[in-house]
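Proteins fold reproducibly. Take a tokenised chain:

. . .
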Amino acid sequence: MRGVQIAKLSLGNGTSLFSLEKCWRDSDNLWWDAFATEFFEDDATLTLSFCLEDGPKRYTIGRTLIPRYFSTVFEGGVTDLYYILKHSKESYHNSSITVDCDQCTMVTQHGKPMFTKVCTEGRLILEFTFDDLMRIKTWHFTIRQYRELVPRSILAMHAQDPQVLEQLSKNITRMGLTNFTLNYLRLCVILEPMQELMSRHKTYNLSPRDCLKTCLFQKWQRMVAPPAEPTRQPATKRRKRKNSTSSTSNSSAGNNANSTNSKKKAAAAAANLSLSSQVPELGALQRCSLNPGRDGALCHSTTVNPTGQFKEKH
């Protein structure tokens, strides 16, 4: 491994999730990306929730920004990082496995500005894809409290130096996170919405202005696309109008059967009908004549043959 040694991912209770130990000062960005590819899905998200002096904070970053997040941890003076899960609960779903640990401890060993061990406690919720790779899909770490531990040997060494003791009494992190990491999370608030522009620029080699124009045009298309769906309704309404028209004609025919004059007109119109006005695929079209039967009902029918001739049935 280049720059960092990794302990494989483990889901057992009381065991470390994974551990990173920095061996040299700098690590290649490609290595960090390979690390994120091994443990995180392509659409993974990492969320950190904690409370600072100015109020609660919540930062969510995507897959492309996750490698840089772990890199900033070591840039802030950390030489060792690992997570300890105690009494975690695992739940299985159709396509994912969720690990919920209410007693998770993120342990970071700092080499500068002074030798300090920081234990950050909180709740960690992980969602893994249920496949052969078992990579992380969502990572949510809620920080509750943290402790900074300084060895007694260092305190005894500088017992006679008040300035050093005062420096040792100051915290080197905020809620267990270094200033490098906090500044990067603040920067991610701006970088995360720009990931689409950066990806398009990298893929199509477009200028920033062209990338912005293309993204805005696609977003505009998505905004105007949903109202186009209700346009299908008038088509159904037209069908309903046709059905209602036919039903109306049938009902009007029934009403006209009560009058003798309308009977004669309808009968004369029926005699002048031609097959060319009908649908060609129909072999025969039956219509009820307007001649009443013995009991006054419409008992006669007229059949239109493909030849265009009418044939009465009794």
About this structure: DSSP finds nine helices and twelve strands in the chain. Residues 6-204 form a domain with the Nuclear Transport Factor 2; Chain: A, fold (CATH 3.10.450.50). The first strand starts at residue 4 and ends at 7.
